[in-house]
Every structure is written in C-alpha cells, then in structure tokens.
Amino acid sequence: MELAGKRVLVTGASRGIGQALAERFTAAGARVALVARSEGPLKELADRLGGTAHPADLADRDQVLGLLDRIEADGGPVDVLVNNAGVEVVGDFTSSPLEDVEFLYRVNLLAPVMLCHQAIPRMLGRGGGHIVNVSSYAGAAVFPGLVAYSSSKAGLSHFTSGLRADLKNKPIGTTLVELGPIPTDMLDHVNDYQPTHDSFDRFYKLRLLVDVPREKVAADVVDAVRRGRRHVRHPKRAMAFPLLAEAPRRTVELFLGGVRHQED
Length: 264
Hints:
Strand order of the largest sheet: 3-2-1-4-5-6-7
Number of helices: 10
Order of helices and strands: EHEHEHHEHEHEHHHEH
Strand content: 5-15%
C-alpha cells in the first residue's frame, strides 16, 4: 500500500508505541486519526501531526459502537486500522478484581474485534485496506501473573489468523504484531508482582529477551503495511515462541489449499 494520502486510525495513540506509530505513519505521508482515553495528550499529538483526535474509552461498548462512523464523519474514510491499545493486569488471577479483568478483555480483545467488524465492510466497499493488530509474545508463552493479559493476546493473535482466512483473495491485508518487552509505561508494571518480575529477569539473563525501542517497532509496522507483510515480531531472538504457536495455523492453511474461503 502506498501510504501517502491514506488515512490511518491508531488506537492507544496518546503515548508509547501508539504515539510512535502515529508519528511514523505521518512521516510516511499518511493522515492519522488518533484514539485514546487521555483527551489532552491526544489532542496535542493530533495537532502536532496534523491529524484528528477522537477521545474514547475502548472498554465502553457504547463508545466503541459507531466509532468508525464518528471518525469517518470527521476527516474521511479509514484505509488502515491499527488496533494498538492495550492494558495489563499483573498479579495472582483470583486476587485481581473481576472488573479489572473484564476491563482488560474489553480493551485488549473485544474492542479490536468490534473495530474490525466495523472497518472491514467499509474497506471492501472501497476496494482495499489493511488491518494491524498489536499482540504480544505473551500470547504464545505465558509468565506467572499474566494469565488475563496473555490469554487476551492469544485471542487477538488467533483472531487475526481467522481474519486472514476469511479475507483470503480479498483486497484487505492483515499484519499481526507480536512483541516482547518494549520500554513504555506498561512494562513498568511487571515489577508489581514478584513471580512476574522474576520470570522476566530469568529470560533477560538467558538473553532470550531484550528491550526493543518503540521507534523500531513503529518503523517495521509501517514497512509491513507498505509491503503487505503478515507479521512483525520483536525481539527476533525469541521469535521461536510465536513461530511454534503459529505452526498449527499455518499447517491448516496448507491443508485447506484449494478450499473456497467465501461463499459466492
């Protein structure tokens, strides 16, 4: 996809990876529509990048429903949807407040599903588009204290694979982004629960994990949209874990060669 002049919707855009993505897409000539809960920082970023700001709580079903309508009414069609927003709950699962767990699943999994459900028919009607879903290595390899987060990201990874099957031979690309530790505010919370902290510490000592700058992630995501690449994975040294998790899905793809993926 040639990005110049295209409109890119980025969720979780007010900071961290989302902010880096917004900046990189803008540098590539795209126009950005930014979604986050933090209205002040979101509007400041949108003004700086020449984009539009759309404050929304993605855990609120009513705010997610019709979000694409509101965004496209204020700036035009969305060509690329980047589901980047994510939250974590770190700690013993049964000690975590149930409302926090529900909030996590709504932001990490249900909101991306709902936004894809809104965006895909529009993209098909316009003849093309691209979906980017930002997942995690935690969706393939689970550390203690991250049961809700890991299962939500596993769901997002599998959902993206399902979308790819449904959209085979359609003019919509998908990119699944699977990440290890990225230095953002979100990573700071792994120290809140000792077993989670110790798990990360073990993998750092084994040199299976290293911090990857968010700017590197953003650059590779933009390149993946340009080139139509299916995956972005960092750090490369731990890529075996998502590859192993992906193996059954890719095997099924091979077995289904020649099977029609859409009804006439």
